[in-house]
């Protein structure tokens, strides 16, 4: 048996070889498993110069093209239907223009046997093409985390659209969204979030934002300013205003999202928010509270919402207070009937189930920027860095909580509810891009079918975002695509940039990775993106000592 990766070859010894030889070489392989996976058999295709429009995103991308052909791919359409193919996908500019089937039955019935040509042809033989993923809640954080790092990690894992918090200011977020739209930066398309609040410093009447009579005017101005996604968690203390804003923002073309803070769930919990008309509910908050026999969680007398370790500890415990049948039947049904979308973001809270695992994941060494490690390491000064005195009881509570949360997601989906897709990453040891793939895996733990999961990450999320030309591989839709060197329906692990192991004959090989990502017909070379990531991470850690290392030293 031989063990190789697509871009490193580390032969494993014969099974009868010595234990030392097997151990040494397998350790070498283990280090290589988290190196970016290469493409198969030089399947990079041929590239011509762009003849369509200028692309200023740099060496990591090219296009759009007057005619681009993705040749010989299997296609996952995105709407929940099964994969089909092989087929050639023809893209003109930013739009998919036609799909030419190449299967024997179609060709026998008179299908087009003449392969389409283009200014560029990408050979995707043996690969799967799916719609680009749409992350409905993520973070770009602040300096010193480079924006280029955040964008590259998303694109390299197949994310073509993101609704990102305006972590560096709303004006800057809108400007970055415009740069992405103009292909001036290698980045997903962006829909910056803004809370329901004053956004114009010159607004002489900030109190109007809590006046139900001024809601429609403010909604129109906020959406016009670039806030397509409006967060309403900050007004969950005011049910009438909450409902009025949810309706008004939708009526003027935007959508609303809510993180229901435990400080306000006694007033508006998840079912009430859904029935008030909010577009989507993020995270896990408010669901268990909807099932309580009383309106208030059993907070201890010394609970302090501003103490994050207490906040997150009891955010898990409330799920164990909720009557199971009420949660998984009545609450699930009312949520589904309301038309709200559920946006779980399971990957960002996974550290609560096993903090040692989260801190020591192997990709942190090569792909996690120093800033993310510094911000995630336990420190009361940083949001989401609350894992000091995090006990085995806390981990057990969150493990049980995840089982209930995932069962609720399954029951909601089974009843016809719309499950969307988001990560809330770049917090709590969740690394952007990598967490996008991990989120798919955690969604599979709910019992959803892989086709349903891809539908949630693409078609459903496009509908939630009210972007009807995104989320499908179909003529007339935007050419936002992920070309995967493997079959994500077989294993979502094939979408990690570093791929996954598989056995081919007598050879153990590492395959996978999103090989190219397309946004508006612009082709991003994911290997070039990840090479930049590796360089940025190495530079960030120059002369730095990882604080996690000391946690695994023997005590003195």
Explained architecture:
The protein has 556 residues and is an alpha/beta fold. Strand 12, helix 6 and strand 13 form a beta-alpha-beta unit. The N terminus is likely disordered.
Keywords:
17% strand, 34% helix, alpha/beta, 21 strands, 556 residues, disordered N terminus
Using only CA atoms, what is the Rg? 24 Å
Helix content: 25-40%
Report the end-to-end length measured between terminal Cα atoms.
Answer: 44 Å
Summarize model confidence as the mean pLDDT.
90
Q: Total number of helical segments?
A: 18
- Main sheet makeup: 9 strands, mixed
Outline the low-pLDDT stretches: 1-29, 39-54
Count of DSSP strands: 21
Beta-strand content bin: 15-25%
List the helices and strands and how they pair.
Blueprint: E1 2-3, H1 19-32, E2 61-62, E3 68-75, E4 84-92, E5 95-101, H2 104-108, E6 120-123, E7 128-131, E8 133-138, H3 147-156, E9 159-164, H4 170-181, E10 189-190, E11 193-195, H5 215-224, E12 229-231, H6 239-251, E13 255-258, H7 270-276, E14 280-282, H8 287-291, H9 308-321, H10 324-338, E15 341-343, H11 346-349, H12 355-359, H13 364-367, H14 370-376, H15 392-414, E16 418-419, H16 434-445, H17 450-464, E17 481-484, E18 500-504, E19 507-511, E20 514-519, E21 522-525, H18 526-540
Parallel strand pairs: 1-19, 3-6, 3-7, 8-9, 9-10, 11-12, 12-13, 13-14, 14-15, 15-16
Antiparallel strand pairs: 2-21, 3-4, 4-5, 7-17, 17-20, 18-19, 20-21
Helix pairs in contact: 3-18, 5-6, 7-10, 9-15, 10-15
């Amino acid at each position: 048996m031989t063990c190789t990766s697509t871009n490193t070859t580390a032969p494993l010894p014969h099974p009868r070889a010595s234990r030392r030889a097997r151990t040494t070489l397998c350790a070498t392989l283990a280090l290589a498993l988290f190196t970016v996976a290469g493409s198969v058999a030089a399947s990079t295709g041929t590239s011509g110069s762009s003849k369509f429009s200028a692309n200023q995103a740099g060496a990591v991308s090219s296009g759009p093209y007057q005619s681009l052909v993705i040749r010989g791919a299997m296609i996952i359409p995105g709407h929940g239907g099964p994969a089909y193919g092989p087929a050639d996908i023809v893209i003109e500019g930013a739009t998919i223009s036609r799909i030419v089937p190449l299967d024997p039955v179609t060709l026998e019935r008179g299908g087009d046997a003449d392969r389409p040509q283009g200014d560029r042809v990408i050979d995707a033989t043996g690969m799967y093409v799916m719609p680009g993923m749409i992350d409905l809640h993520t973070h770009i954080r602040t300096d010193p985390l480079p924006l280029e790092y955040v964008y590259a990690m998303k694109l390299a894992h197949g994310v073509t659209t993101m609704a990102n918090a305006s972590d560096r200011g709303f004006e800057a977020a809108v400007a970055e969204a415009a740069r992405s739209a103009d292909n001036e930066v290698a980045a997903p398309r962006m829909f910056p979030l803004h809370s329901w609040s004053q956004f114009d410093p010159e607004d002489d009447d900030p109190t109007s934002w809590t006046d139900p009579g001024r809601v429609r005017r403010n909604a129109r101005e906020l959406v016009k300013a670039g806030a397509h996604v409006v967060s309403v968690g900050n007004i969950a203390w005011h049910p009438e205003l909450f409902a009025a804003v949810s309706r008004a923002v939708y009526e003027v073309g935007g959508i609303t999202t809510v993180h229901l803070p435990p400080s306000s769930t006694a007033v508006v919990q998840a079912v009430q928010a859904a029935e008030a008309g909010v577009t989507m509910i993020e995270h896990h908050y408010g669901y268990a509270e909807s099932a309580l026999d009383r309106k208030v969680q059993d907070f201890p007398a010394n609970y302090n919402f501003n103490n994050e370790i207490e906040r997150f500890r009891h955010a898990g415990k409330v799920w164990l207070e909720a009557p199971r049948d009420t949660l998984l039947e009545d609450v699930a049904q009312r949520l589904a009937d309301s038309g709200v979308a559920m946006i779980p973001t399971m990957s960002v809270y996974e550290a609560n189930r096993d903090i040692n695992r989260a801190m020591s994941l192997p990709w942190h060494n090569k792909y996690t920027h120093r800033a993310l490690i510094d911000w995630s390491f336990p420190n009361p000064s940083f949001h989401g860095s609350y894992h000091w005195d995090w006990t085995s009881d806390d981990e057990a509570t969150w493990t049980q909580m995840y089982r209930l949360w995932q069962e609720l997601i399954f029951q909601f989906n089974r009843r016809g509810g719309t499950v969307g897709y988001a990560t809330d990453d770049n917090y709590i040891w969740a690394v952007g891009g990598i967490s996008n793939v991990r989120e798919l895996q955690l969604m599979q733990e709910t019992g959803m079918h892989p086709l349903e999961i891809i539908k949630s990450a693409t078609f459903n999320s496009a509908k939630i975002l009210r972007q009807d030309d995104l989320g499908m591989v179909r003529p007339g839709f935007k050419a936002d695509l992920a070309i995967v060197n493997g079959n994500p329906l077989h294993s979502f692990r094939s979408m990690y940039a570093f791929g996954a192991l598989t056995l081919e004959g007598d050879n153990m090989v590492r395959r996978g990775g999103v090989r190219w990502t397309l946004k508006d017909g612009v082709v991003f070379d994911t290997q070039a993106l990840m090479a930049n990531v590796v360089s940025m991470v190495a530079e960030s850690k120059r002369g730095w000592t990882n604080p996690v290392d000391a946690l695994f030293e023997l005590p003195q």
